[in-house]
Amino acid sequence: MTMLNRMLARGVVALTNSARKLQSLQMRLTADEVKDGMEHLEPYGFTSCPLPGAEGLAAFLGGDRSHGVVVVVADRRYRLTGLESGEVAIYTYEGDKIHLRRGRAIDIVTSTLNITASEAMNINAPTVNISAASTVNFDTPSIHQTGTIISDDDQVSGGISLTGHVHAGVQSGDDTSGVPQ
Length: 181
Description:
With about 180 residues, the chain is mostly beta strands. It is built from 1 helix and 10 strands.
């Protein structure tokens, strides 16, 4: 085995343990070489738990094969293809993705998107479009709005239609009618 082959090895992920502070992998490196508990070094701020069958590159410093580290893991089975030069994406095997596109556009694709902020969530844009196939729900004790509300259809508040309600106690002249019913 050459020195380079002793220092680097390409292999396949067999098992993962992501419960530790530094994730460990079991790697199948050669036909007969299986290494347990290999530390998986990841870039700061990024982590993943690779699926069995993903490919990895292991490094053995100084050629000492008793302790290696996995420096990168890739999974060609699920890798996004067709990105343009300069684009970046993160993805899962289920089809979720965050795609930072050219032209400063970001696409997020998932089944459910949850955003949790302990203090505030701010959206600042000239135009905000929300398109929902069935309903937009607000569960909040108060909504404060400045400016004009324009509605192309009826609005209902407390079960009373803005355009289809009637008043009780209607009288002629300058008298005030009763409350909406």
